[in-house]
Specification:
With 260 residues, this protein is an alpha+beta fold. It has one domain (2-253). It is 27% helix and 13% strand. The protein has four helices and ten strands. The chain has helices at residues 2-51, 87-91, 95-98, 244-253, and strands at 59-62, 69-70, 125-128, 133-134, 165-169, 179-180, 194-195, 206-211, 216-220, 232-233. A five-stranded mixed beta sheet has the order 6-3-5-8-9, covered by helices on one side. The chain has a three-stranded mixed beta sheet with strand order 2-1-4, with no helix packed on it. A two-stranded antiparallel sheet has the order 7-10. A hairpin with a 4-residue loop joins strand 8 and strand 9. The longest helix is centred in the N-terminal third of the chain and has 50 residues, at 2-51.
Protein backbone atom coordinates (compact mmCIF):
# COMPACT_ATOMS: atom_id res chain seq x y z
CA UNK A 1 0.00 0.00 0.00
CA UNK A 2 2.83 2.39 0.87
CA UNK A 3 4.54 1.65 -2.45
CA UNK A 4 1.28 2.32 -4.30
CA UNK A 5 0.86 5.67 -2.54
CA UNK A 6 4.43 6.60 -3.42
CA UNK A 7 3.78 5.80 -7.09
CA UNK A 8 0.56 7.85 -7.06
CA UNK A 9 2.39 10.77 -5.44
CA UNK A 10 5.14 10.63 -8.09
CA UNK A 11 2.57 10.55 -10.87
CA UNK A 12 0.80 13.57 -9.34
CA UNK A 13 4.08 15.50 -9.14
CA UNK A 14 4.94 14.67 -12.75
CA UNK A 15 1.45 15.71 -13.87
CA UNK A 16 1.75 19.04 -12.04
CA UNK A 17 5.03 19.66 -13.86
CA UNK A 18 3.81 18.58 -17.29
CA UNK A 19 0.34 20.15 -17.45
CA UNK A 20 1.51 23.80 -17.57
CA UNK A 21 3.96 22.93 -20.34
CA UNK A 22 1.23 21.10 -22.28
CA UNK A 23 -1.11 24.06 -21.80
CA UNK A 24 1.50 26.47 -23.17
CA UNK A 25 2.15 24.13 -26.10
CA UNK A 26 -1.58 24.08 -26.88
CA UNK A 27 -1.80 27.88 -26.82
CA UNK A 28 1.24 28.12 -29.10
CA UNK A 29 -0.22 25.56 -31.53
CA UNK A 30 -3.51 27.46 -31.66
CA UNK A 31 -1.66 30.71 -32.36
CA UNK A 32 0.28 29.07 -35.19
CA UNK A 33 -2.98 27.70 -36.61
CA UNK A 34 -4.59 31.14 -36.42
CA UNK A 35 -1.65 32.77 -38.21
CA UNK A 36 -1.88 30.09 -40.91
CA UNK A 37 -5.60 30.82 -41.38
CA UNK A 38 -5.06 34.55 -41.70
CA UNK A 39 -2.21 33.97 -44.14
CA UNK A 40 -4.51 31.84 -46.33
CA UNK A 41 -7.21 34.51 -46.25
CA UNK A 42 -4.65 37.12 -47.25
CA UNK A 43 -3.41 34.92 -50.09
CA UNK A 44 -6.99 34.46 -51.32
CA UNK A 45 -7.42 38.26 -51.18
CA UNK A 46 -4.40 38.67 -53.47
CA UNK A 47 -5.63 35.96 -55.84
CA UNK A 48 -8.94 37.81 -56.15
CA UNK A 49 -7.07 41.06 -56.87
CA UNK A 50 -5.03 39.33 -59.58
CA UNK A 51 -8.18 37.94 -61.21
CA UNK A 52 -10.08 41.25 -61.14
CA UNK A 53 -7.69 43.77 -62.67
CA UNK A 54 -6.33 44.91 -59.28
CA UNK A 55 -9.80 45.60 -57.82
CA UNK A 56 -10.09 44.82 -54.12
CA UNK A 57 -12.70 42.34 -52.82
CA UNK A 58 -15.89 44.19 -51.77
CA UNK A 59 -16.68 44.55 -48.08
CA UNK A 60 -20.25 45.84 -47.77
CA UNK A 61 -22.49 45.80 -44.70
CA UNK A 62 -26.15 46.57 -44.10
CA UNK A 63 -28.97 47.09 -44.29
CA UNK A 64 -29.70 50.06 -42.07
CA UNK A 65 -27.69 51.62 -39.26
CA UNK A 66 -27.46 48.29 -37.42
CA UNK A 67 -25.44 46.90 -40.29
CA UNK A 68 -24.92 43.51 -38.72
CA UNK A 69 -24.80 41.55 -41.97
CA UNK A 70 -22.17 41.35 -44.68
CA UNK A 71 -24.04 41.77 -47.95
CA UNK A 72 -24.06 39.53 -51.06
CA UNK A 73 -21.10 40.20 -53.31
CA UNK A 74 -18.75 40.81 -50.37
CA UNK A 75 -15.67 38.80 -49.40
CA UNK A 76 -17.95 37.01 -46.96
CA UNK A 77 -21.71 37.12 -46.38
CA UNK A 78 -23.85 37.08 -43.24
CA UNK A 79 -23.27 37.57 -39.52
CA UNK A 80 -20.61 35.61 -37.63
CA UNK A 81 -22.69 35.61 -34.44
CA UNK A 82 -25.82 34.08 -35.99
CA UNK A 83 -24.62 31.93 -38.93
CA UNK A 84 -25.06 28.28 -37.91
CA UNK A 85 -23.78 26.80 -41.19
CA UNK A 86 -20.95 27.56 -43.61
CA UNK A 87 -23.28 28.59 -46.45
CA UNK A 88 -22.54 32.30 -46.02
CA UNK A 89 -18.81 31.61 -46.09
CA UNK A 90 -19.27 29.74 -49.34
CA UNK A 91 -21.32 32.64 -50.75
CA UNK A 92 -18.45 35.07 -50.27
CA UNK A 93 -16.31 35.98 -53.27
CA UNK A 94 -13.11 34.67 -51.64
CA UNK A 95 -14.30 31.16 -50.80
CA UNK A 96 -13.27 29.61 -54.10
CA UNK A 97 -9.71 30.77 -53.45
CA UNK A 98 -9.68 29.67 -49.80
CA UNK A 99 -11.06 26.20 -50.52
CA UNK A 100 -12.27 25.31 -47.03
CA UNK A 101 -14.47 26.67 -44.27
CA UNK A 102 -12.11 25.86 -41.37
CA UNK A 103 -9.77 28.62 -42.49
CA UNK A 104 -12.36 31.22 -41.38
CA UNK A 105 -12.30 30.23 -37.69
CA UNK A 106 -9.50 30.68 -35.16
CA UNK A 107 -8.66 27.38 -33.38
CA UNK A 108 -8.86 29.20 -30.03
CA UNK A 109 -12.31 30.69 -30.72
CA UNK A 110 -14.78 28.73 -28.60
CA UNK A 111 -17.71 31.12 -29.07
CA UNK A 112 -21.07 29.67 -30.06
CA UNK A 113 -23.87 30.79 -32.36
CA UNK A 114 -26.25 33.24 -30.73
CA UNK A 115 -29.24 31.37 -29.30
CA UNK A 116 -27.77 27.95 -30.17
CA UNK A 117 -25.63 26.79 -27.27
CA UNK A 118 -23.16 24.16 -28.37
CA UNK A 119 -23.13 25.19 -32.05
CA UNK A 120 -19.68 26.58 -32.75
CA UNK A 121 -19.40 29.68 -34.91
CA UNK A 122 -17.96 29.47 -38.39
CA UNK A 123 -15.94 32.72 -38.54
CA UNK A 124 -13.49 34.62 -36.33
CA UNK A 125 -11.93 37.05 -38.82
CA UNK A 126 -12.87 40.40 -40.35
CA UNK A 127 -11.39 42.58 -43.10
CA UNK A 128 -10.39 46.21 -42.69
CA UNK A 129 -13.19 48.58 -43.65
CA UNK A 130 -10.66 50.89 -45.30
CA UNK A 131 -9.88 48.31 -47.99
CA UNK A 132 -12.95 48.60 -50.20
CA UNK A 133 -15.48 48.89 -47.39
CA UNK A 134 -18.91 50.13 -48.45
CA UNK A 135 -21.10 51.75 -45.82
CA UNK A 136 -23.72 53.18 -48.17
CA UNK A 137 -26.31 50.69 -46.95
CA UNK A 138 -25.58 51.76 -43.38
CA UNK A 139 -26.63 55.32 -44.17
CA UNK A 140 -23.11 56.78 -44.03
CA UNK A 141 -21.92 58.84 -46.98
CA UNK A 142 -18.58 60.31 -45.87
CA UNK A 143 -16.65 57.09 -46.49
CA UNK A 144 -18.17 56.83 -49.97
CA UNK A 145 -17.42 60.37 -51.07
CA UNK A 146 -16.06 60.76 -54.59
CA UNK A 147 -12.67 61.89 -53.30
CA UNK A 148 -12.14 58.91 -51.00
CA UNK A 149 -9.39 56.84 -52.65
CA UNK A 150 -10.00 53.63 -50.72
CA UNK A 151 -13.59 52.90 -51.68
CA UNK A 152 -13.88 50.89 -54.92
CA UNK A 153 -10.09 50.99 -54.85
CA UNK A 154 -7.40 49.05 -56.63
CA UNK A 155 -4.35 47.46 -55.08
CA UNK A 156 -1.91 49.80 -56.79
CA UNK A 157 -3.51 52.78 -55.02
CA UNK A 158 -2.75 51.46 -51.52
CA UNK A 159 0.18 53.46 -50.09
CA UNK A 160 2.84 51.41 -48.28
CA UNK A 161 0.93 48.08 -48.33
CA UNK A 162 3.47 46.63 -45.90
CA UNK A 163 2.02 48.97 -43.24
CA UNK A 164 -1.72 48.62 -44.01
CA UNK A 165 -3.57 45.88 -42.14
CA UNK A 166 -6.16 43.73 -43.91
CA UNK A 167 -7.53 40.72 -41.99
CA UNK A 168 -7.73 40.50 -38.24
CA UNK A 169 -8.89 38.12 -35.53
CA UNK A 170 -11.88 40.07 -34.12
CA UNK A 171 -13.28 39.84 -30.57
CA UNK A 172 -16.11 37.30 -30.35
CA UNK A 173 -18.50 39.88 -28.85
CA UNK A 174 -17.64 42.51 -31.45
CA UNK A 175 -17.67 40.53 -34.68
CA UNK A 176 -20.79 40.40 -36.87
CA UNK A 177 -20.48 41.52 -40.52
CA UNK A 178 -17.23 41.23 -42.47
CA UNK A 179 -15.88 44.68 -41.53
CA UNK A 180 -13.20 45.52 -39.00
CA UNK A 181 -13.65 49.26 -38.45
CA UNK A 182 -10.73 51.18 -36.98
CA UNK A 183 -10.92 54.96 -36.88
CA UNK A 184 -8.87 56.98 -39.31
CA UNK A 185 -7.61 59.93 -37.22
CA UNK A 186 -7.36 62.19 -40.28
CA UNK A 187 -10.90 61.33 -41.35
CA UNK A 188 -12.62 61.71 -37.98
CA UNK A 189 -10.40 63.09 -35.16
CA UNK A 190 -13.31 63.10 -32.70
CA UNK A 191 -13.40 59.28 -32.68
CA UNK A 192 -9.70 58.54 -32.52
CA UNK A 193 -9.91 57.50 -28.83
CA UNK A 194 -12.68 54.94 -29.47
CA UNK A 195 -12.63 51.29 -30.45
CA UNK A 196 -15.26 51.03 -33.19
CA UNK A 197 -14.70 47.27 -33.36
CA UNK A 198 -12.58 45.38 -30.85
CA UNK A 199 -9.77 43.00 -31.82
CA UNK A 200 -9.58 39.54 -30.29
CA UNK A 201 -7.77 38.85 -27.04
CA UNK A 202 -6.52 35.30 -27.56
CA UNK A 203 -3.12 33.61 -27.83
CA UNK A 204 -1.60 35.15 -24.69
CA UNK A 205 -3.51 38.45 -24.95
CA UNK A 206 -3.15 39.06 -28.65
CA UNK A 207 -4.40 38.32 -32.14
CA UNK A 208 -3.29 37.59 -35.70
CA UNK A 209 -3.13 40.40 -38.28
CA UNK A 210 -2.34 40.30 -42.01
CA UNK A 211 -1.08 43.19 -44.10
CA UNK A 212 -1.78 44.26 -47.67
CA UNK A 213 1.68 43.22 -48.85
CA UNK A 214 0.91 39.63 -47.78
CA UNK A 215 2.81 39.17 -44.51
CA UNK A 216 1.14 38.15 -41.22
CA UNK A 217 2.05 39.04 -37.64
CA UNK A 218 0.97 38.12 -34.12
CA UNK A 219 0.35 41.22 -32.04
CA UNK A 220 0.35 41.09 -28.28
CA UNK A 221 -1.75 43.78 -26.62
CA UNK A 222 -0.45 45.92 -23.79
CA UNK A 223 -3.95 46.00 -22.25
CA UNK A 224 -6.61 43.24 -22.13
CA UNK A 225 -9.38 43.67 -24.70
CA UNK A 226 -12.68 43.41 -22.81
CA UNK A 227 -15.82 44.13 -24.80
CA UNK A 228 -18.31 46.56 -23.23
CA UNK A 229 -20.19 48.08 -26.13
CA UNK A 230 -19.86 49.05 -29.76
CA UNK A 231 -17.77 52.18 -30.18
CA UNK A 232 -16.32 51.91 -26.69
CA UNK A 233 -13.70 54.40 -25.46
CA UNK A 234 -10.18 53.28 -24.67
CA UNK A 235 -9.70 52.46 -20.99
CA UNK A 236 -9.74 55.56 -18.80
CA UNK A 237 -6.72 56.95 -16.98
CA UNK A 238 -8.12 55.76 -13.65
CA UNK A 239 -8.37 52.21 -14.99
CA UNK A 240 -5.20 52.30 -17.04
CA UNK A 241 -2.73 54.89 -15.70
CA UNK A 242 -0.15 54.07 -18.38
CA UNK A 243 -2.81 54.42 -21.13
CA UNK A 244 -1.75 51.09 -22.60
CA UNK A 245 -5.17 50.48 -24.16
CA UNK A 246 -4.89 53.80 -25.97
CA UNK A 247 -1.38 52.87 -27.10
CA UNK A 248 -2.79 49.65 -28.57
CA UNK A 249 -5.44 51.67 -30.39
CA UNK A 250 -2.91 54.16 -31.75
CA UNK A 251 -0.75 51.29 -33.00
CA UNK A 252 -3.67 49.90 -34.96
CA UNK A 253 -4.83 53.30 -36.21
CA UNK A 254 -1.37 53.78 -37.71
CA UNK A 255 -2.09 50.77 -39.93
CA UNK A 256 -5.07 52.20 -41.82
CA UNK A 257 -4.74 54.32 -44.99
CA UNK A 258 -4.71 58.04 -44.34
CA UNK A 259 -7.53 59.37 -46.52
CA UNK A 260 -6.84 63.10 -46.37
Amino acid sequence: MIELLVVIAIIAILASLLLPALSKAKVKAQSIGCISNVRQLQLSWHLYVDDHNDALPPNAAGPGLGGERAMPGSWVVGNAQTDATTSNLQSGVLFKYVGGSRVYRCPADKSTVRGQLGVQRTRSYSLSFWLNGDATLLGYQLENAAGDPFIKATYVRIPDPIQIFAFMDEHEQSIDNGMMVVDNPLDDPADQDYWWHLPADRHSQGCSISFADGHVEHWRWKWPKMFKARHQPAASTSQDPQRNDLKDLRRLEACVPMVK
